[in-house]
Structure formats: structure tokens, C-alpha cells
């Protein structure tokens, strides 16, 4: 068992869910495949999906919903 | 009563623009700022500044309660919303009014009316201003064909519950229409939960032309001529010019008259912009922007007016400083929007640090920006970081001046749209002014590697 961190490709604001009223993309303990969307980063009024770049189980969110993030910042930890 | 102090509820170049107008009028200007903007130019140049909250727009410039609180703590008598953020939210304008403050803009009820597509269309009809011909909802193929005969081919079949370009199908003839109506109804039912569709005339590459108006609280409305804004990508303007090239004198006066009629009909107050689509000998109202417009400098260049100062005077209850007959359009002006975006990567936003900056200057050149060398463009807000505008006695000279100024403009550290503008000024359709609302996207698609 290893661990893998999904990072942000752009600075901005991180969201757990596609819209304020929607369910989160993933929750802790969920299994994800490579390419699954695990969050959203808003940069300059445009939205970019954060994709899992490995398969695994979500072990922790490293940022809160609506947290400000920087480029390369760790967002989600996976157990691989 | 003239205003003595104003809260500038915005950031970036437009906040700085309003701060400057306040200072020239002897009005105390109070800036607001988020965490990311603590040392921004609009804060440094204001008389006072109030912190709103965290960097995200929803926690700062879009937080109406925080802005109202800032206005109360700063003891201002008015709030200028700039453009974007809270500027066209009727609930915010109403809250400002209820707090006993002056909202620099029209009454909240006018913002509400013009922000409602159906209400604005109805208002235009009652002011005898043409709208894009369209039908009521149709429930059968025969009804659709009858409706299309009235509005004229080619048509678009649109889902009543649709939006953002979804659920739209074109038809050039009645035979085509008979086929697509059925498809459109089926698609609308599955996508939007309602099979209601309507028929609207399909325009074939119209021009986007808008008219600047000013209205005071004494019932006087004037126009300040038009702006040509057809160069757009995903409905975002990138370059604007005044006057609109190729517009006949008859069309110009018809547009300006229609804008004034509409503004009178709705009881408009302040600076506003009435947007039209122009195709051939016809024009159609699309919407009114109830605030100062990004591209207002080109109107200031050709008329000599200070539109933001007019807004502040109007808000203080003064009559317009000019009569319609005194407003003349002289020469030609072009604005180039400098966005922190990479045109070579599908306009990916490019926030980051500005390592070096050289601004153009010389005769007939104006740069509206809050961005200074060493600043960081934050990722939280709009990508517009500067507006370069030029003026010259003729359009040809204005194009030459634009090329010269763009060649001088240098931003190091992040990609911008400056290079795109340099290339656009060599495009034949831009040089001869024949471009329409399809030109930029067609050109960008053909340019892609």
C-alpha cells in the first residue's frame, strides 16, 4: 500500500462539489479510478476539474471546500 | 446635494478609474479590498480603505453584507459598484437604497427590469424598439411552420427552458423545420423536462453595436453615440472601437434614438449601455447593461466626456453637464483588452507575478490599469488586467497608433492578449472594419496548430 497526492495544476479556489447544492465529487473512503474527477478549482472565473492521476482510495482531503490553493499544492491523498 | 464621499465597491482598473474621478471632483474615495489586494493600486491611491474579507470574490467583493458594513463604517454617502461583482444585482442596489445611501446607478427596480430577459423584451416593444423576431411557444410542427413564416427564414428552434446555447437547432426552409422541430421537442423534453420550443429568426453574422446613454434624475436622457464590439470570443469582447465603421448615418441615428427611447421608457438614471445586433438594414435590441461599461474610454476619447464623473454628478442630483446637441463624435478610438490569458493555450487564465512592465505612451494613448511592475495578478478575479485605448483624427491613423502602442507594450512574467491584438491589427477584416460577431472565433479556429 502506498500513498499518492493529487495536486492542483493551477492556483485558485478549491471546491469539493460541482455546484453549491450538489453532492461532493468524492468522499473519504471512496474508490477512484485514474481520470475520475475529485474536485474543482476556480481560476479567474473559469472552472477546471481536478482529475485523479492514479487509482486508489481517498484517504484524506488536504484542503477544505472553498480554500485558496496554489499551483502544485496537494489537494487529495489516495491510498494506492 | 453633491456627494462628499463614495465607497468604491470594486477592484482593479475600474476601482482606480472611479477613485481618480472622485479625487478630481473633490469627493473622498474609500476603497475596499480583499486579502489578495491589500497592497493593490486602487487601495494605495484611495483616501481610505476598508478590508472586506478573504481573497475569494464570494468572501469579499461579492459579499453584499460586507460591502454595506464597510460603507457604514467609512461613513460614506454613496456606493459606486463599478462593473461586474455587485453592479447589476437589484437586491444589492435595493439594500443600498434601504440603508439610506446613494447607489451610483439606476434605481434597483430598473436593474431588475432590464436584468429580466422577457421584461426587457416587452419594454423594448412598448418603446417601439425592435427585438429579434421570435414566436411564442409552439406545440406542433404546423404551428412551428406558421410561426417561421411570420418571423422569416432562416430560423432557430430553441427550447423554452434551455440556455447557454443548448437545445438550439437551425432550419433554413420549411422542410428542414418540419424535421428539426420534432428532434428539438424530443431533445428539450429529455434535457430540460419540458418539450416547449419556440422559433426565432437566425441572424447570419450580425454586428454587435451598442449605444452609450446618460440620464439624470431630472428626466433628461442623452446618447453619447455608439461603440462597435463585434470582436468577441465566447461572448467576451476583446477589442472595441468608436465610431462603428461602416455604419450608415441613418442606422446610427436610428440606434441612438432607440437607445434614448428605451432609457426613457424604463425611467433610466445614470450611465447605461443599450446593446443591439445590426444586420443589413435591420437592428435588434438584445440587452441593456445598467452600469459603467468596460469599454467606456473609447466613448470618452471621441466625445471628450468624463463618463464616470457624469455618473457621480448624476448620483449627487445634478443635471447633466451637457445637452445632446453639445455631444459630438470626433475622430476614431480603439480599445484593446489586455487579459492575463494565454491565446496560444486556448486562453488559459495566467495569473502570476509581473516581473517587468513597460507601458506605451505618447500622443493619443491611454492605459487604464491597476497593475504595476512587481505586482502579482491574483487567480481569484476577472482576467482583465489593463485596457489600452488610442485616439486619432481618422480610423486609419487610429489603427497605426494602435500598432505603434501595442509594439511598445511589454508585460514580462505572464502571457497576455497583447500579441493577439498585434496580429489582429493585420487582419484584413479588422483593417477594413467589415468584421462581425463570428469573425474572431472563425479566425482563432483557423489559426490553431
Automatic annotation (TrEMBL), chain A:
Chain intervals for the UniProt region annotation (Disordered): 1-21
* Record flagged with keyword NAD: no
Which keywords belong to this entry? Biotin, Fatty acid biosynthesis, Fatty acid metabolism, Lipid biosynthesis, Lipid metabolism
- Entry's InterPro entries? AcCoA_biotinCC, Biotin_BS, Biotin_Carboxyl_Carrier/Decarb, Biotin_lipoyl, Single_hybrid_motif
- Which PROSITE patterns does this UniProt record tie to the protein? BIOTIN (PS00188), BIOTINYL_LIPOYL (PS50968)
Question: Is Glycosyltransferase one of the keywords UniProt gives this record?
Answer: no
Entry superkingdom: Bacteria
Look up the record and name the pathway of this protein. Answer: Lipid metabolism; fatty acid biosynthesis
Lipoyl-binding domain span: 3-79
The record's function comment reads: This protein is a component of the acetyl coenzyme A carboxylase complex; first, biotin carboxylase catalyzes the carboxylation of the carrier protein and then the transcarboxylase transfers the carboxyl group to form malonyl-CoA.
Q: What is this protein called?
A: Biotin carboxyl carrier protein of acetyl-CoA carboxylase
Automatic annotation (TrEMBL), chain B:
Q: Does the keyword ATP-binding apply?
A: yes
**In what residue span(s) does the Biotin carboxylation domain sit?**
2-445
Pfam families attached to this UniProt entry: Biotin_carb_C (PF02785), Biotin_carb_N (PF00289), CPSase_L_D2 (PF02786)
Q: What class of enzyme is it?
A: ligase
Could you tell me the superkingdom of the organism this chain comes from?
Answer: Bacteria
Catalytically driven reaction(s): N(6)-biotinyl-L-lysyl-[protein] + hydrogencarbonate + ATP = N(6)-carboxybiotinyl-L-lysyl-[protein] + ADP + phosphate + H(+)
Q: Which GO MF terms does the UniProt record name?
A: ligase activity
Q: What are the alphabetically sorted keywords of the record?
A: ATP-binding, Ligase, Nucleotide-binding
- Domain ATP-grasp residues, every copy: 121-316
What EC number(s) is this enzyme filed under? 6.3.4.14
PROSITE patterns reported for this sequence:
ATP_GRASP (PS50975), BC (PS50979), CPSASE_1 (PS00866), CPSASE_2 (PS00867)
Question: Carries keyword Nucleotide-binding?
Answer: yes
InterPro entries recorded: ACC_Biotin_Carboxylase, ATP-grasp, BC-like_N, Biotin_carboxylation_dom, Biotin_COase_C, CPAse_ATP-bd, PreATP-grasp_dom_sf, Rudment_hybrid_motif
For this protein, the record's PANTHER family field holds: BIOTIN CARBOXYLASE, CHLOROPLASTIC, PYRUVATE CARBOXYLASE SUBUNIT A
What does this chain do? This protein is a component of the acetyl coenzyme A carboxylase complex; first, biotin carboxylase catalyzes the carboxylation of the carrier protein and then the transcarboxylase transfers the carboxyl group to form malonyl-CoA.
> What name does UniProt use for this protein?
biotin carboxylase
Which species is listed as the source?
Actinomycetospora flava
Amino acid at each position: 500500500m502506498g500513498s499518492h497526492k493529487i495536486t492542483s495544476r493551477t492556483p485558485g479556489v478549491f471546491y469539493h462539489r460541482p455546484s453549491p447544492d450538489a453532492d461532493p465529487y468524492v468522499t473519504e473512503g471512496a474508490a477512484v479510478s485514474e481520470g475520475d474527477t475529485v474536485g474543482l478549482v476556480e481560476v479567474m472565473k473559469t472552472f477546471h476539474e481536478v482529475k485523479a492521476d492514479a487509482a486508489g482510495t481517498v484517504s484524506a482531503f488536504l484542503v477544505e471546500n472553498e480554500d485558496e490553493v496554489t499551483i502544485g499544492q496537494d489537494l487529495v491523498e489516495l491510498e494506492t | 446635494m453633491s456627494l462628499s464621499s463614495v465607497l468604491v465597491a470594486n477592484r482593479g482598473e475600474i476601482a482606480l478609474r472611479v477613485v481618480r474621478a472622485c479625487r478630481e471632483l473633490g469627493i473622498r474615495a474609500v476603497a475596499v479590498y480583499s486579502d489578495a489586494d491589500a497592497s493593490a493600486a486602487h487601495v494605495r491611491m484611495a483616501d481610505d480603505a476598508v478590508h472586506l474579507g478573504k481573497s475569494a470574490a464570494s468572501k469579499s467583493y461579492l459579499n453584499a453584507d460586507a460591502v454595506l458594513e464597510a460603507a457604514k463604517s467609512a461613513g460614506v454617502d454613496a456606493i459606486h459598484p463599478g462593473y461586474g461583482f455587485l453592479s447589476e444585482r437589484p437586491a444589492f442596489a435595493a439594500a443600498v437604497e434601504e440603508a439610506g445611501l446613494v447607489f451610483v446607478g439606476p434605481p434597483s427596480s430598473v436593474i431588475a427590469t432590464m436584468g429580466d430577459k422577457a421584461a426587457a423584451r416587452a419594454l423594448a416593444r412598448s418603446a417601439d424598439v425592435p427585438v429579434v423576431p421570435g414566436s411564442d411557444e409552439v406545440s406542433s410542427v404546423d404551428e412551428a411552420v406558421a410561426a417561421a413564416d411570420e418571423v422569416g427564414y432562416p430560423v432557430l428552434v430553441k427550447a423554452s427552458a434551455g440556455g447557454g446555447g443548448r437545445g438550439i437547432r437551425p432550419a433554413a426552409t420549411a422542410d428542414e423545420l418540419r424535421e428539426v422541430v420534432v428532434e428539438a421537442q424530443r431533445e428539450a423534453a429529455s434535457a430540460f423536462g419540458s418539450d416547449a420550443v419556440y422559433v426565432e429568426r437566425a441572424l447570419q453574422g450580425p454586428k454587435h453595436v451598442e449605444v452609450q446613454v446618460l440620464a439624470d434624475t431630472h428626466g433628461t436622457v442623452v446618447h453619447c453615440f455608439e461603440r462597435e464590439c463585434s470582436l468577441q470570443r465566447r461572448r467576451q469582447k476583446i477589442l472595441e472601437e468608436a465610431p462603428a465603421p461602416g455604419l450608415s448615418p441613418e442606422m446610427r441615428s436610428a440606434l441612438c434614438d432607440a437607445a434614448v427611447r428605451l432609457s426613457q421608457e424604463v425611467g433610466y438614471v445614470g450611465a447605461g449601455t443599450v446593446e443591439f445586433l445590426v444586420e443589413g438594414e435591420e437592428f435588434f435590441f438584445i440587452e441593456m447593461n445598467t452600469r459603467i461599461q468596460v469599454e467606456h474610454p473609447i466613448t470618452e476619447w471621441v466625445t471628450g466626456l468624463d463618463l464616470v464623473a457624469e455618473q457621480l454628478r448624476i448620483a449627487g442630483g445634478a443635471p447633466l453637464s451637457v445637452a445632446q446637441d453639445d455631444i459630438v463624435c470626433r475622430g476614431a478610438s480603439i480599445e484593446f483588452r489586455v487579459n492575463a490569458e494565454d491565446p496560444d493555450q486556448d486562453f488559459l487564465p495566467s495569473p502570476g507575478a509581473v516581473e517587468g512592465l513597460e507601458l506605451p505612451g505618447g500622443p493619443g494613448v491611454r492605459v487604464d490599469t491597476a497593475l504595476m511592475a512587481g505586482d502579482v495578478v491574483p487567480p481569484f478575479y476577472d482576467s482583465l488586467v489593463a485596457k489600452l485605448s488610442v485616439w486619432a483624427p481618422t480610423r486609419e491613423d487610429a489603427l497605426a497608433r494602435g500598432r505603434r502602442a501595442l509594439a511598445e507594450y511589454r508585460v514580462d512574467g505572464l502571457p497576455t492578449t497583447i500579441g493577439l491584438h498585434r496580429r489582429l491589427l493585420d487582419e484584413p477584416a479588422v483593417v477594413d472594419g467589415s468584421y462581425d460577431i463570428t469573425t474572431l472565433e472563425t479566425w482563432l479556429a483557423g489559426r490553431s496548430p
